[in-house]
Design brief:
This protein is mainly α. It contains 9 helices and no strands. The protein folds into 2 domains: about 1-85; about 115-189, Serine Threonine Protein Phosphatase 5, Tetratricopeptide repeat, CATH 1.25.40.10. Keywords: Membrane, Repeat, TPR repeat, Transmembrane, Transmembrane helix.
């Protein structure tokens, strides 16, 4: 019986690989892409095994969703991948990228607390994420939480000492705080 199951699984995996590798590059419009992704998702769950081929298939599906800005679906597949391999660097980076992207969108819409949450999620996923720390610093600065902004910029610089924007923003913020302290001291005299 087990031998028969192996014979059934191998063709299903081969079909999945062919669909992903051959069909996706030729898909021209969004409707075709969506129907292709739905087809792959509709494959029987028993055809999905936790071997290298499945992981690579899930990664490709997550990448397609990410490319189409369908972030919730991409997050679902990255998280599914991370359940089988919690240290998969590509999946962790993909997930962190999405959280940063969502943070940008929320920041543009002035949803600063939502942006903070997304940047923190990116840091939870990839703890040395320079861009997440930099953006976290920007949001803290906008909120007037200067000490937290300074700490975030310093952490970004710790991981990338050449990050020009973090260096510049840190310098601007430190000088601003000094000038505020100086003007406060003059008012007290």
């Amino acid at each position: 019986m087990k031998q028969k199951l192996k014979i059934v699984f191998l063709p299903l995996i081969a079909i999945l690989a062919i669909v992903i590798l051959v069909y996706f590059p030729t898909v021209k419009n969004k409707d075709q892409k969506k129907s292709s992704l739905r087809y792959i998702e509709s494959l029987p769950e028993q055809s999905v095994r936790t071997d290298f081929h499945d992981v690579s298939g899930y990664y490709q599906i997550a990448q397609k969703y990410q490319k189409n800005a369908q972030y919730n679906d991409a997050i679902f597949y990255y998280q599914k991948l991370l359940k089988t391999n919690p240290h998969d660097k590509k999946s962790l980076l993909g997930l962190a990228f999405i959280y940063i992207k969502q943070g940008y969108v929320k920041e543009e819409k002035e949803d600063l607390s939502g942006a903070l949450g997304d940047y923190r999620k990116a840091i939870e996923v990839v703890s040395d994420n320079v861009e997440a720390y930099y953006n976290l610093g920007n949001v803290y600065a906008k909120l007037g939480r200067f000490q937290e902004a300074i700490k975030s910029y310093q952490t970004a610089i710790k991981y990338d000492p050449t990050h020009e924007n973090a260096l510049a923003n840190l310098d601007i913020l430190v000088n601003y705080i000094k000038s505020m302290d100086k003007s406060g001291q003059e008012e007290n005299k």
